[in-house]
Amino acid sequence: QTSKSPPLKAKGERKEPVFNSSHKEVDDRLDFPLLSTPPRSSTSLAEDLEDAGQALSGLTAAQERKRNTRSGPSSWQTSYTDLWHRFVQRALAFRVRLPSLLGGSKIRWRLALGIILGLLVLLGLYLVITPPRPSGTSTAPAKIEILGGTVISPDKPEPLQIADATFGSFEKHLSEEQDFSHSDDLARINAYRDADRLARLSGPHLLKADEFMRVGALIAPADANAYSEYASVLRIDPDNLAAKNGMGQILSLLIGQIDKHVQTLEFDAARELFSEVETRFPDESQVAENGKSIAAAEVAYREAQKAKENQAKLEAQNLERERERQKQIELLLVRALKALDEERLISPPGDNALTMYRSALDLDPANQRARNGIGNISSFYLQQTREALSINDLDEASRFLEIASSISPDDQDVVNLGQQLKRRQFLETESKRLQEEASSNIALAQNMANEQDQLKLQSGVRAYYAGDYRQAFQYLEPLANRNDPQAQVRVARMLMEGRGVDRDKPKAIAIFGAALAPVQLAASQGQPWAQSDLADYYFDGLVIDKDYRTAAFWYQKAAEQGYAPAQTNLGWLYFNGYDGVAPNRAVAIYWFSEAASQGNQTAANNLRSLGEDVPTSNGG
What we know:
The protein is mainly α and about 625 residues long. It is built from 24 helices and two strands. Among the domains are: about 25-175, no CATH class; about 195-255; about 525-620, Serine Threonine Protein Phosphatase 5, Tetratricopeptide repeat (Alpha Horseshoe), CATH 1.25.40.
C-alpha cells in the first residue's frame, strides 16, 4: 500500500522533520497497513544509512536538471522524503510488535520509549548535518561523508563524527544557489570550512592582543602580552593579515622604546630590550639596523665621555698649575714687601724688592700689586733725586735718577728730572768757569744764577702743589730769603699751617705782608701765579680784609690763563657759593676737571669726593 503523505514542495531552504510522539498524528498523515514485520537484524540501522547515502547520490543529477529546467521539486528533497517514509514505516511496524515484546511492564515501556526518542534525535541530527551528495554511475561501494572530513565505508564502518561547524552557518550556505556540478565544489566547501575554523580559533587571540596593545603589554608579562597572542594566531594561520600587522606595530613600538633609551643614554636598558626584540624578530632587517645604531650611539657616547674626562683632567692640571703659580706669586710678593721694610730695594743682587716684584710680573704680567711695588721703588728714587737737587747735590741727584731711570725709563718724571739735571749740571759748570774768568763776566754769571734760582723756584712750586711740603720748603726758603714774592707766599703758607715745617704764625704773617706789594704788582702785570696769590690774600683776610668777590675775580683771571691752583680754588668757591652767588655744581666740576687734567691732586681728590671721573693728567 502506498503512502498518502502529501508531496514535498520545492523551496530555497531545507525543512527539518518535526517529530511528534502522538500515534494519531502519524496515523492521520500516513496510511500504512498494520502488517506483521519480521524481526530485523542488528545491522538494520547501518543498512538504512547506506540506503540514505544511495538516495543522496542522485543529488548532482537533480541539481543539473534544476539548472536546465528551473522547475520541479528538488531531487535531494525527494530523497530525504523517501528516506523519512521508509523510516516511519519501519517505526510503525516496530510499534505493532512492541506490545508483544514488552508485555505489560511499565518500566519496559518507558525504556523502549526512551530508546525510540533517542534514535529519533540521532536521526534528526544526521539529516541536518549531512550535505546532499551528487549522484554518479560509479560502481564503487557507497560511502557517506559527514561534515568534518570523516568517511564511513560499509566495508569498514567507523563511528559517526559531528562537524565543528554550526548549524546556522551550514544552513546559510545551503540556502544559496550554488553550482555543485564542478569538480572543485568539495575543495571550495572545505576551504570555507577551514577559513571559518581559523577565524573562530584566531578571534579570541586577536581580541586579547588588541587589549594588551591598549595597555602597553607588548612582550611582557610572559604569560599575558600582545606578542604571544599574535604569535598564537600566526601558528594557527600563518597568513593572518591582522596578526602580521600587529607584529609590525609591536616591532615599531619596541624600536621606538629602544631609541628612547638610547636618547636618554640608558644603553643597558636599550641592549636588554634589543635582545628581547632580536629573539622575537630575528629575520627583520630593521632590527639589525637598530642593533647597529645602538652600538654606534654607545661608541659615540663612550668617546664623548672619554673626551670629556680628558678635558676635565686637562682643566684640573691647568687649575693645579694656576694654583701653584698664584702660590709662587704670593710668596714673591711677601718676600718683596719684607725687603722693602728692610730697605733692600735694589740690593743685594737676587734678594731685593725690585728683583722679586719683577719675578712676580714674569709669572703674571697683569699683577697690580707687583706693578705698584715697582712704581713705589721708582718713586722713592725720584724723590731722592729731587731732594739732592734741592740742596744742589748734583752728583747724588744723578746717581738716584740713574736708578729711577733703570726701573721706569718711560716715566715722565724721570724724563723731566733728567732734563733739569742736565741743565743744572751745565749751569753749575759754566758758573764755575765764569767765576774763574775776568770780572767782566760777573753779569753773565749773575744771570745764570738767576736762571738757576728760577729752576729751583719751579721745583719748589711743583713740590708744594704735589703735597711734598718738606721738599718744597727746602727749595723755596732760600728764595724767600732773597725776597722772591712767589717763594715768600708759599713759605708763609707752610709756616702758617705747619706744612713740612714747624708752625710759626707771626713769622708767616710778616712774610705775607712783605710779599703783598710785589704780588699786587705782578698781578697787575698779568702774572697768573700773582693773580692767584692775590686772590688768596682776599680769601684768607690775614693781611687785608676778607673779600670773596674780589678773590673770585682774581681766581677767574688766573684760571682763564690755565693756572691750576687758581682753577681749583675757583671751583671750590662755585661749589659752596659766596657773597650772594649761589652754588653751581656744574661750574665747580668744570674747574676741578681743568685743574685735575694738569695733575693738581687737590682738584682730583675733590672730583672723587663728588663721585665724578678724574681726567687723565697731561703732566702739567
